[in-house]
Amino acid sequence: xxxxxxxxxxxxxxxxxxxxxxxxxxxxxxxxxxxxxxxxxxxxxxxxxxxxxxxxxxxxxxxxxxxxxxxxxxxxxxxxxxxxxxxxxxxxxxxxxxxxxxxxxxxxxxxxxxxxxxxxxxxxxxxxxxxxxxxxxxxxxxxxxxxxxxxxxxxxxxxxxxxxxxxxxxxxxxxxxxxxxxxxxxxxxxxxxxxxxxxxxxxxxxxxxxxxxxxxxxxxxxxxxxxxxxxxxxxxxxxxxxxxxxxxxxxxxxxxxxxxx
Length: 261
What we know:
By secondary structure, the protein is an alpha/beta fold. The protein is 41% helix and 16% strand. Its EC number is 3.1.1.85. Monomer.
């Protein structure tokens, strides 16, 4: 039986749902849950097929969003990292009335590079899909190493990410492949241009997966959203710079023109 793992904690009155990235689970938020839990009611989720959310096969982006929505509070701020940012964005498109605010972290509405659009080269994502079937644990570890490359704390950050993966059974190859397929094919650029949801976009200047060149492009396309780049962070700013990350989020939640109840 398929069941989504979901844990609620924290003392705040506003609901904040945290969605992790590809290959990982809700353990990635360990660095920031104490701080954020004193301001929000946190909802920690393992995405379908990841971590403790067992029994799911490969899902489309829309199916993943609908599965998470089914268990979610009626109205919440949604924060999604990387692949989780796509899921949170899809939720804001499907049911905007249930989204008080959207925060995407080191995420892109279109992860694949094409023409003038910066992103991950299609052959790199295709290579990861190919390697998954040969040695999927090593492939996941390589992907994690890319996420911290260039930061001052890269070694300890990648150790933390690996420990989060190893705490739980590895996701099925089918699920991991499905996640890479979403990263390869999803394109929410046009759909999100019409969104009226308050949107904060957070990036790492050293991120090799979501190039900082997309920031001004989206500033122009989505003038209703707000962006911030963490100067010394890569793909996981909440791990490398937890205090700065929490401060930015809390300031935005106070002054970010969130949808009223």
